[in-house]
Amino acid sequence: MNKFYESAIIALDAIWGAKLRSLMTVLGNIVAVTSIIAVVSLIQGLNASVKQAILNEAGADSFSIQQFPITRSDEEFDKVRSNPRVSLQDMHAIRRYDSNLITAVMADSGARGRITYRDKSIDGMSVTGVTSDYVNFSSYDAERGRLMSPTEVDSSRPVTVIGWQTADRLFGADTDPLDKIIQIEGIHFRVVGVSAKRGSLLGQTQDEFAVIPLGQFQMMFGSRRSLEVVVKPRDVAMITSAEDEATVALRVARRLKPKQPDNFGLFTSDTILDLYHSATSGIFAVLIGVVGLSLVVGGIVIMNIMLMVVTERTREIGLRKALGARRSDIMSQMLTESVVLSMFGGVIGTIFGAIIALVISSFTPIPATIEAWSVALGIGITALVGLFFGLYPAMRAARLDPIEALRRE
Predict the structure, then answer these.
(1) Which of 57, 119, 189, 285 has the most other CB atoms within 10 Å of its CB?
(2) Cα end-to-end distance, the chain, whole Å
(3) Is 11 in a helix, a strand, or coil?
(4) CB within 8 A of 9, min separation 6: which ones?
């Protein structure tokens, strides 16, 4: 430990004694680590934001049934193009299935419409129609007021729960939106609740929406739209078994033969997250790989500088060996100098990378999350780069013959 401390002090003295050369030496490391920290922070922030948005939309404790499964090519989609629309009959089929694993089943459908209150209107607002079991799902809430009751939904009453930003844009801060009458596509609805604030994803707000009874929705937008059936298991641990039972119920209701494939798609929040990760992991890997090339370039520069240092300090190394320094002592000193020099660039790069990520997050919709492990990774990688590329110069210094070294001018 004492030897390492002494070597580190010598290394820092050498860096401070040639500040400009040291800075130019680790410039490649600074650029590489800055890029890595900035990219990883933005990726982590984006992943966390997307995950939260998916969980808010789909719910971690439920799964959904839609007309089409995930398809990755035109050929795959051609095979499922003729799938029948998901309807209320499918929801009823799952409800009728004698299952003690499923606690709630709802159907919903979405469209875009105009919402108006007096002289204020919002175009392209998300409007979702739901069935009465929606109150059992965590993706629906009312921070102010209440949710629509099952009776109101079943009887298609003109009531609605609106998003936080919808209420803010229509009513402002001074007007209480509860029990106010708004128009959705020209139809009057009474506001009974306002949902909690959800935030935004890539600059797109998640708080502009209105939830209405499905019966009203179908009268406004048509009843031939394909629905989405959402199923909530009694326990999250039973979600796979509940999926199997829902699948059996639908196959029986649709009279599918044993060898026929499912003519519907089944999704969980994990399914959507996996799809997102598979779509973006390749892009992120390429970004990190390209940035990592800078580390290799930086390592080569460090190796060249350390070889030059060995040449400059040949007499010093010879004198130390003549006074009893062992090969391991010389090698340890040179490796420590290389590692400290490389980590010096890593620390500066980490600071710059964090600043860049925060600046981008402040001025763009892309969120940033600076994780402790990414900081440790950035500095740790530079330490490994210094160790690897400093190994050859250190071995060369350790092999110097003290007599020949002392003879050099």
Answers:
(1) 189
(2) 34
(3) helix
(4) none
**If you write DSSP's letter for every residue of 269-281 in order, what string do you get?**
HHHHHHHHHHHHH
Closest CA to 247 of 394, 94, 138: 94
28 is written with which tokens? 């490649």
**What is the bridge-based pairing of β-strands 187-194 and 159-162?**
parallel
Instruction: Please give the structure tokens belonging to residue 96.
Output: 């009728």
Q: Is 97 exposed, middle or buried (0-12, 13-18, 19+ CB in 10 A)?
A: middle
User: How would DSSP label each residue in 145-199?
Assistant: E-PPPHHHHHTT-SEEEE-HHHHHHHHTTTS--TT-EEEETTEEEEEEEEPPP--
Under 8 Å between Cβ of 26 and 302? yes
Closest listed residue to residue 130, CA positions, set 197, 190, 218, 243? 218
Q: In DSSP terms, which residues pair with 117 in a beta bridge?
A: 120
**Interior/surface letters 278-311, b for 16+ CB within 10 angstroms, e for the rest:** eeeeeebeebeeebeebbeebbebbbebbeebbe
Helical (H) or strand (E) element with 106: strand 102-117
CA distances (Å), origin 208, targets 158, 172, 194, 196, 302: 19, 14, 11, 11, 54
What amino acid occupies position 217? F
73-113: pLDDT as tens digits: 888 888 888 899 999 999 999 988 877 888 889 999 999 99
Quote the CA–CA distance of 57 and 70 in Å, as a whole number: 18
Beta bridge partners of 160: 191
Residues 6+ apart with CB under 8 A from 231: 62, 63, 64, 65, 94, 102, 104, 105, 242, 243, 246
What is the model's pLDDT at position 368? 83
Q: 189 pairs with which residues across the strands? A: 182
**Is the Cβ–Cβ distance between 93 and 107 less than 8 Å?**
no
What is the C-alpha separation between 148 and 155, in angstroms, rounded? 11
Q: What is the pLDDT of residue 297?
A: 75
**Roughly what angle, to the nearest 10 degrees, separates helices 269-312 and 372-398?**
30
DSSP codes joined into one string, 27-91: HHHHHHHHHHHHHHHHHHHHHHHHHHHHHHHH-TT-EEEESS----SHHHHHHHTTPPPP-HHHH
Instruction: List CB contacts of 87: < 8 A, sequence separation 6 or more.
Output: 226, 227
Q: What percent of the chain is modeled with pLDDT above 70?
A: 84
